[in-house]
Structures are given as structure tokens and as C-alpha cells.
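Try it yourself: sequence plus C2E, in.
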Amino acid sequence: MRVRRPFLGAPVLFVIAGIAITLATTGVMALSLYQMRRDAMSQARDAAENLADSLEKETERNLDVFQLAMREVAISIQTPELQRLPADVRQLVAFGTTRGARQLGAMFATDAAGNFILDSRSPVPRRLNVGDRDYFQVQQRDKGAGLYLSRPFLSRGDDAGQPTIALSLRLDGQDGQFAGIVAGSLRLKYFHEMFKDAILGRHGTITLLRTDGSVLMRQPYHPGDVGSTLAGGHSFPPLVRSDQGSYVDIAVLDHVRRLYSFKRIGRYPLVVVVGLSTGDIYAGWHRRAIAIGAVTIVIDVLSIGLSLMFAGLLRRRLEMERQLRELAWFDSLTGLPNRTQLQREARRALAHAKQDASSFATLFIDLDRFKRVNDTQGHAVGDEVLREIAGRLREQLHAGDSVSRLGGDEFLAILQDCDVLKAMHVAGRILQAIRQPVALDSEQDTSITISASIGIAMYPSDGENTDVLLRNADMAMYQAKRSGRNRIHFYAPEYERKAREHLDLEIALQHDLKARTLSVAYQPKVDATGRLHGAEALVRWRNDRMDSIPPDYFIPIAEESGLIVELDAWVLGEACRQLAAWRAGGLAVPNIAVNVCAMDLKRPDYPGFVARTLADHGLAPADLILEMTERVMFDEAADDIRTSIDEIHALGVMLAIDDFGTGYSSLNYLHRFPVGELKIDKSFVQGIGDNARSESLAQTIINIGKTLKLTVVAEGIETPAQREFLRRHDCDLYQGYLFSPPLSPDDFARWVAAQRQSVPARPSP
Ligand code: C2E
Ligand code: MG
Ligand code: MG
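Structure, out:
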């Protein structure tokens, strides 16, 4: 059995899509945040560099102006004419052109001892000595020192105590000896003024350094910063090595992480460093990152949530579809494929067989007497049995074969690549498997044993398409039932013809039964002396279109269609009427035997009907014998039949077992049922004389009858030898063509009259 799995990957796809969307949005967001962060940094770098650049330019320009002014002072001081001028004039001349530069700071010249000889702040030089200052000593020591920039120091002049730096130039005498310096002192406050408007954020810094690492000025201003050194910091080397650049570092002074952009101021040993704290740089980015992150999380949660929701919905939907498909394709009781699914399986088998030019078998399996299980054990047990049988059927099949339930107790198996022999084999196994007892109640240890009938149609010999095969397998199954159940029948073409014939016959019989065109023949039963002991009523059907149709042929058809009930009722009434009529005409017929079948006895009102019919014709119960075959007692509804039999017996009507020896021949039921007569089947009687087995069987039956004190009747006696054999073995009564065939009522009356003359009259009771 092949079950196609529904595609369950789809809900997973939803989840994967959800995750993919999440990853994509998160990735894009992260990437753009990263990009924004880099942009923030590079913008900050640009800003810092620009600022460093402009500060550098401005500082350089001012220093250049200052330096040039100092050089002019140096030139004028060395001019001999100037030496001779009075001090105030000399001061005017020397600083005349340096007005602009003097705004930056004081300018002065000293002699070789460091005493002021010219002072921009006073026409008469102030009495100051700078011999202890580094900017003096460097020039005094080193002839080639050039322009020297001092370390910061605290001013001693007008604005005493102010942090100041100084630039100095050496003055040489005529002899080349050191003659003093020209110097300019710059208050560092000036740079503060210059830098203070720069926009730097909350933690930004601007630092002016000497290239030896000592801090000249730092914005914002902290008194302790001036004079401290950065030379130990690990970011100091790049500051010294190159003229400009940027780096990120944690500040030595305040431990804040910053982006620094530095620029060397012209040729001066000075560097301006602009620092922007990374906190400030990323502040805007940070805010946006939080917002974007939040949005991303919301989007992600939504997309994952939605995808899970859709996946859940889809899964539920697929599951429902699967269940619907199962409902549509599978039988809910047994879980086997149902009729709909069977069509697909059959088409598949057909296509496969056509392609491979192979054959396959169609097995129609019908449980025997299943209705009885349902009726006696209840439907729950019936269902349980069906489930169990379904499981066993499945076990007997190979991969590629399929079994389905057609409904009720019918199953159909399709055996792929299967020839007649194999089909027979598998069907045999199935029968065997079904016959194993089905446990009903493990505690009470009760079980039920059931059998099945199987009909087999082969592709392609028994049909070219699935409908025909199914019908033919069904027909074959039906044959199996008819030939005694619990067996296998192969479909053969004559079955189909027979089935059609049956249907035609059924219709005709129904018609003729209504039209009362049937008749009853009577066959005498005699004793060993030839004296009449009774008559058996046998129905006769002669149809205009057909010749006489033997009861052996149409009675089973009447049984199948249910017409038998009506037919037998009519025969019983007719036989009783005839007996009463004969007696009324002076013909002494001791009793009349009528054949009944299981379906008659199953009618709950049958005993009442028998009683009424006897009464209607003024007959006594002893006037009637009902003949039934052994099979009747093994019918599915044995309990109903049993009740009828008991009631009939209670009426006083005798029961006979007809065709004894052909059915189940169990001595058991002879004890259990109130039987008064046994009729040896004619097949044994006819075997007498040339078949030892028949003879011994006939003999055995007579013995059984004697033992059980039953009347034994032999039917179908055709020869005197048969009669002699039976007589020798003490058979009670005789029936057969040797005495008389079944006769019309008139012929029967004549036969009785003729008989009376040749045989001595029966002693009256
Ligand atoms: P059965 O009850 O065993 O009836 C005896 C059959 O043996 C009759 O066949 C009878 O004609 C036939 N027979 C009698 N003597 C001889 C003989 O010497 N040689 C041969 N070859 N046959 C002989 P029939 O009338 O064809 O009936 C066949 C069966 O149909 C009966 O077997 C009985 O089972 C059934 N049947 C007949 N009438 C009725 C009826 O009204 N109701 C029911 N339910 N069944 C009936
Ligand atoms: Mg009979
Ligand atoms: Mg018989």
C-alpha cells in the first residue's frame, strides 16, 4: 500500500523565510549602523583636521609676524647709528615697525649678561635680567641655535605670574662674540583667546605642545596642565615623527578616549592637537543606533512571529487536508484504503501491467457469515473483527500489492506481477490467516473463528479494465460462496453467463410465482412391502418460453433473491390443500412431506404460519413432515432457526433431515435437534452396486438412524438391486423412480389406486 505523504516542507519554508527576512533586515541595519559609525568618525576626523589646520595657520602666521618683528629689532640694534641715539629715541626706532607684532606680547633685547637694553614696554628699559631663563642660556651657549622657543614659565614683568613662552634670537658682536638676545614673550592666554571659539563638543580639547612633549596650553584650561608632559604617552611618537595626522587614544591627562588630529605649526617646534571625545563623536550615532536597533528588533520579532504564525496556520491546514484526504481515501474503521483509493491503486496496477506486459490478480475477499457475528456479538465486536482481519490481510501481502476495504465485510486485494499459481498461493494464505481465531476478550479467553470466500479475476485474461476485473472477481467470490464458503474460486467466462441467466430466471420466477403458474408434484414414499407411507411435495416450474426447469437449478436462485419464502409458503399451502382434497376423495395418504429452507425457518412467524395452514385445511400436525437439509442447521442465524424448529416440534410436526451425508454430517446436531427422520441422499443410494464407499455410507446412515431411533428413508432408488441392498440393511422407507417418479395430483391418485390392487392394504392403526 502506497500512501503519498503530503508536502510538509512548506511550513518550514515559511519559518526559513521568516528567519531569512530577519537576518536580512538585521544585517542591513547592522551594516548601515556600522557605515554610519564610520561616517561619524570620518566626519569628526575631517572637522578635527580642519580645525587643527586653521589653528595651525593662524598660529604660524602670528608667530611669523612676531619673529619678523624680532628680526627687525635685532637688525636695528646692531646698526651702529642706533647705538648713539638717546634711549627713548632708540626705543621708538627699534620698535617703530613692530606695532602689530607687539600686540602679541612684549619684545625686548638684552646684553650679554641678560640685562634689558631695549624694551617694547618702556622707553627706558626696565631693570630686568633674564640671564636665568632657558631662552637666554640656549642662545648664550649655542651660536647656531637660531630661533628658539622656550619652555613655558611664569612672567616676571607687568603681568607677573602669567604662563608665558618666549622666542629668542642671538645677537653677536663685531668680533662674533655673544652680545645678548632679542626675545619676545607671548602670554599663553593669547592662544586661549584664539582657540576659545572653536566648537569642540563637551569633551573636546585643543592642546598646544612643544615637540618635546611639554604642554603649553590646553583648552579647556586647567592650571596644572601647563608644563606637564605628554612625552610618556604611547601616542606621542607619531606626533613627533610626522607633521600631521590623526589617531584615537585615551588621554594621558584626563583618561578620556578621543580622536586626535595634530598639525605641526610651520617650522616651529610646536604642535597643535585637536581632540574630540569619541563619546561626543558617536553621541548622535548612538541615539540613532538605539532607535534603529529598536525598529529592527520590532521588525524581526514581527517577521519571525508572522512566519511562525503562518507556518502554524499552514501546518494546521495541511494537516486538515491530509485528514480530509485520509477520510476520502481511507476507510476509517480499518485504516485500509477505501473504494476511492482502490480505483487509484487499480489504475496504477493496470498501467504497470500494461507497461511490463505482466499480469496481476484481483482478489475479492468476503467474510463468511459475518452478519452472524454482528447479530450475535454486537457491532463493537464486529468492528474489532474487521480491524483484526484487515491487519492480517495486510500482513499477507508483499510490497507493491494493495488491499482495500470495499465496505461491509468485503475486501479487495490487488497482487502485482502475479500469475494464477501465485494468486492461488496468496489467496490460500489469506484464507488460512483469516481462519485463525480472533480473540474477543482476553480475560474470558473467548474467541471467534471466521472464514472467507475469495474470488479471483486475472488481468488480462479475465478483464481488460478495472471495472470488469472487479465485477468478475466478485462473481468468482460468489461462486466460492455457493460451493460451500471458505474457499477460493477463479473467475471463468461461464460464470458471467450464468449470472446473467440467473437474473433472467429470477425475473421469470417472480412473474410465474405471482401468476400461480407453478405446480407441485408428489412422489410416493413406500415401505419394504411397497405400501404407501407418505408423499413428498416437489415444486415444478414449467415456463412457456422454457422447458421444465429443475428445482436444483432454480431453488438456489429463489433462495438468493428471497423469493423462496413466498414459493415455499405457496407449496406448503398447496400440498396441504391437496392432501385434504385426496382424503376428502377417499384416498388414504398418510402424510405429506414439504421441503423448507433456512430462510423459511428464520421467519419468526413461520411456526404460526405452519399451524394456521394445517388448521385451514383441517389437518393434524402429524400429517406434515418438514424436510430441511443439514446446512440449515449451520446457518448464520442458527438461534432463530433453532427457536422455529423447537416451536414446530412442539406443534407435533415431524422434522426430517434431507440429503443426509452431503453436508456437515455431524452427529452432534442430530442429538440437539428434535429430528424424527433421516433421508439418505440419493447420491449414496445410486452408488449402491458399484461403489463400496457409497454402500458403506448408506449402511452407516441406516445404523445411525437405528441407534437414534429415527425413521430412515432412502431416496433416489432406481433399481431393484438398490432396494434389495437397503432392505437387507433394514432401511425403513423407500422413495425413487423404481416406485414412482414425482407425479401430478391426478397421476398420484391413479398410482395409489393401482397400488392398492397389487399391494395388501395398510393395516388400519
Ligand atoms: P429433495 O428434497 O432431495 O428431493 C428429491 C429429489 O430427488 C427430487 O428432485 C426428485 O425428483 C428426485 N428424485 C426422486 N427419485 C429419484 C430417482 O430415482 N432418481 C433421481 N435421479 N432423482 C430422483 P427435484 O424435484 O428435482 O428437487 C430437487 C430438490 O429441490 C429437492 O431435493 C429439494 O431440495 C428442492 N425442492 C424441490 N421442491 C422444493 C420446494 O417446494 N421447496 C424447497 N425449499 N425446495 C424444494
Ligand atoms: Mg426433500
Ligand atoms: Mg433429497
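One thing you can check immediately is this: DSSP finds 24 helices and 27 strands in the chain.
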